[in-house]
Design goal:
The chain has two domains: about 5-40, no CATH class; about 45-150, Arc Repressor Mutant, subunit A (Orthogonal Bundle), CATH 1.10.10. The protein contains six helices and three strands; from the N terminus they run αααβααββα. The longest helix is centred in the first third of the chain and has 27 residues, at about 20-45. With about 150 residues, the protein is mostly helical. The protein has a three-stranded antiparallel β-sheet with strand order 1-3-2.
Length: about 150
């Protein structure tokens, strides 16, 4: 098992190992650049839409909404799980991620319904829930988002 960056930093500071400290600084800078790039790409594909401040979705709900808005068809619970929890260590993931996703979708639906938007569900073989928006709903959501950007 690899030690964490924090643990490595503490050891390097304690030992005065300048080479190791410089490596850690370099890795942190590289990580920050990659995290920025991930955020850019997620925004480009619609996973992080700029939502009106009057639509206060949580980060997870905004990701789900963005994925559904950007999808050609339905978005599976598995795809949402990967997008939200995929990069997390197992110890930080919820015990029942699909249950948490269902709850997030429920709360997201309540919020977007206030704007006249609707997310529908379908079940794929095997009983997994998938979520989608009709073309009309997507157009309405995009118009709402564009109106917010313009103001």
């Amino acid at each position: 098992m690899m030690p964490s960056i924090a643990a490595s930093t503490c050891k390097a500071v304690a030992s005065g190992d300048q080479a190791q400290l410089e490596t850690i600084r370099s890795l942190r800078a590289e990580l920050a650049v990659k995290q920025d790039r991930i955020e850019e790409l997620e925004a480009q594909i619609g996973m992080r839409p700029v939502l009106p401040p009057t639509m206060p979705l949580t980060a997870s709900q905004a990701t789900i909404f963005g994925m559904i808005l950007a999808a050609q068809g339905a978005v599976t619970g598995e795809a949402i799980e990967v997008a939200i929890y995929g990069a997390m260590p197992d110890c930080d993931k919820p015990r029942n991620p699909r249950g948490v996703i269902k709850a997030q979708v429920h709360h997201m639906r309540k919020m977007i319904n206030l704007f006249g938007l609707r997310v529908d569900s379908t079940f794929i073989p095997g009983g997994e829930a998938s979520y989608f928006m009709s073309a009309d709903m997507k157009a309405k959501a995009r118009a709402l988002i564009e109106a917010e950007r313009a103001s």
